[in-house]
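Sequence design from tokenized structure. All designs in this work follow the same two-part layout: the structure record, then the generated sequence. An example of the structure record is given first.
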């Protein structure tokens, strides 16, 4: 058994910030927010996305019309779509994404199927189906445009599989240089893309790791990466994190015009995660949003009063959308730009 300690990585980086310790970062507990709707009727809301005045949220336990589209201004649901099943246009394993064009995508990599949805101003939608090669290695994806999609493949030879039209490429860098048999579980995470910066962001959920990649001339190039302190050991080809130091990565990732935002527990304020009373004990969710600039400098930590389950961002504004426990599920808008007033 080989004991491994990861601390300094490329640049001087301790804990979860690029230039400051968490204890030195300014904390904010008052920020502008508003409730868009408290009609999030689901036992488990899944991923959410924001684009062109709409928020798309997934009912992870729903079987019919499991994608719900909410008008941000009115708070009303304008339409819903997507069905689970074995039919030719139904989803066995769905992954959601939006593209800079404003279109929403539902992909099923197990079936090799993609639905492109276009929402008009009245809330009506049109749908187009595309078929492609099956890939069971994909755990997350994001569209860079309507034709180009970056797939996260943590258990494959490369971290990313990039599909653009008929062309397929690979790329990305794993957080560890060593190969581990449990990479599929170790490196699962979130992808997000800011078209104004031409920047892809990957955050790992199993490890305190974030990386940014530029997208130029059809290629992804690593720009910056940060990794926190991790204590673990290599056991029989697997990397095992110490039970006494269960440091994980960010639970959620969101991009705005000027910021990278992650959902994480601020232990100094919230304390250690309490033991869950049940499988869906939402009271143990984190309350804090970590706000980075696009150079991965941690600038502020927002300590909210709510247990937060999901977040997404609007890359054309500095607004974050969050599904919070209030005490039932509510969809909120948080104005990150108001941080400039602090």
């Amino acid at each position: 058994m080989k004991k491994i300690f990861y601390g300094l990585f490329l640049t001087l980086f301790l804990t979860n910030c690029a230039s400051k310790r968490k204890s030195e970062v300014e904390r904010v507990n008052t920020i502008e927010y508003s409730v868009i709707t408290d009609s999030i009727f689901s036992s488990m809301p899944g991923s959410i996305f924001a684009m062109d005045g709409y928020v798309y949220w997934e009912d992870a336990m729903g079987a019919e019309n499991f994608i719900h589209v909410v008008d941000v201004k009115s708070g009303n649901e304008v339409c819903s779509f997507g069905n689970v099943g074995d039919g030719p246009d139904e989803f066995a394993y769905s992954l959601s994404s939006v593209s800079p064009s404003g279109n929403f995508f539902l992909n099923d990599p197990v079936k090799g199927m993609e639905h492109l949805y276009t929402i008009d101003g009245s809330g009506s939608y049109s749908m187009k189906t595309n078929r492609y090669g099956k890939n069971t290695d994909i755990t997350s994806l994001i569209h860079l445009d309507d034709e180009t999609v970056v797939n996260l493949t943590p258990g494959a030879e490369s971290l990313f599989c990039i599909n653009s039209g008929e062309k397929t490429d690979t790329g990305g860098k794993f957080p560890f240089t060593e190969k581990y048999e449990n990479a599929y579980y170790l490196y699962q995470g979130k992808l997000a893309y800011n078209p104004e910066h031409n920047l892809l962001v990957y955050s790992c959920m199993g490890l305190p790791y974030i990386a940014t990649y530029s997208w130029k001339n059809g290629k992804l190039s690593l720009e910056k990466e940060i990794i926190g302190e991790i204590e673990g050991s290599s056991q029989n080809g697997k990397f095992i994190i110490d039970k006494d130091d269960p440091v994980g990565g960010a639970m959620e990732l969101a991009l705005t015009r000027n910021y990278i935002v992650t959902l994480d527990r601020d232990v100094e304020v919230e304390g250690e995660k309490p033991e869950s009373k049940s499988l869906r004990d939402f009271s143990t969710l984190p309350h804090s949003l970590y706000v980075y600039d696009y150079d991965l400098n941690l600038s502020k930590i927002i300590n909210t009063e709510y247990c937060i389950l999901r977040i997404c961002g609007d890359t054309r504004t500095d607004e974050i959308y969050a599904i919070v426990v209030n005490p039932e599920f509510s969809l909120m808008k948080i104005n990150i730009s108001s941080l400039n007033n602090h």
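Residues 2-341 form a domain with the Neuraminidase fold (CATH 2.120.10.30). We note this feature because it recurs in several other targets discussed in the main text.
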